[in-house]
TrEMBL record:
PANTHER family: ECF RNA POLYMERASE SIGMA FACTOR SIGL (PTHR43133:SF52), RNA POLYMERASE ECF-TYPE SIGMA FACTO (PTHR43133). The keyword Transcription applies. GO terms for biological process: DNA-templated transcription initiation. This is Sigma-70 family RNA polymerase sigma factor. Keywords: DNA-binding, Sigma factor, Transcription, Transcription regulation. One of its GO terms (molecular function) is sigma factor activity. Residues 18-87 form the RNA polymerase sigma-70 region domain. Transmembrane segments: none annotated.
């Protein structure tokens, strides 16, 4: 084959020595991290291949070389754990039929309204809550609050105006 050079015999021996010296400890380390014996074989193979391709590492002391290999193996395990294949993510063509609405927006709106209502005077707040949130007419609110209908209308007008300002201060309305 063109472009592929045969591995010299002494390289075969050095590769065998590299495997004999480091494969078992690296494999045990990877198994201790993952618990996956078959996957550990792949990580060890890739680690040894990276060491073999790095002449600076091959020239190091055996203890330094082992530390480098352990680090490379750890990074390979982390990369595999982060990959989509490991997380079993599979794209789907169709979305699930029953999507549930998120109640977060409604909760935030409720909090903003409660804060705006808390800025009103007690009389204005009672008129707004009774009519708008209580679902009562002006006449019904007047009876319930024991005040004239004109007063209910006035308190509604000024209460809603104050609420609009409070909401504007919170960036809700224009």
């Amino acid at each position: 084959m063109r472009g592929v050079r045969p591995v010299p015999r002494d390289d075969d021996e050095r590769l065998g020595a590299l495997f004999d010296a480091h494969a078992a400890p690296v494999w045990r380390y990877v198994v201790s991290l993952t618990g996956d014996r078959a996957g550990a074989d792949d990580v060890v193979q890739e680690t040894l291949l990276r060491a073999w391709r790095n002449p600076r590492i091959l020239a190091q002391e055996p203890s330094t070389m082992r530390a480098w290999m352990i680090t490379v193996a750890r990074h390979l395990v982390i990369d595999e754990a982060r990959s989509a294949r490991r997380r079993h993510e599979h794209p789907v063509a169709d979305l699930p039929e029953h999507a549930r609405d998120d109640d977060t927006d409604a909760l935030f709106e409720q909090i903003l309204i409660e804060e705006a209502l808390s800025t009103l005077s007690p009389d204005h707040r009672a008129a707004v809550v009774t009519t708008y949130f209580g679902g009562r007419s002006v006449a019904q609110a007047a009876v319930e609050l024991d005040i004239p209908e004109g007063t209910v209308k006035s308190r509604l007008h000024y209460g809603l105006r104050a609420m609009r300002l409070a909401l504007q201060e919170r960036g809700v309305t224009r």
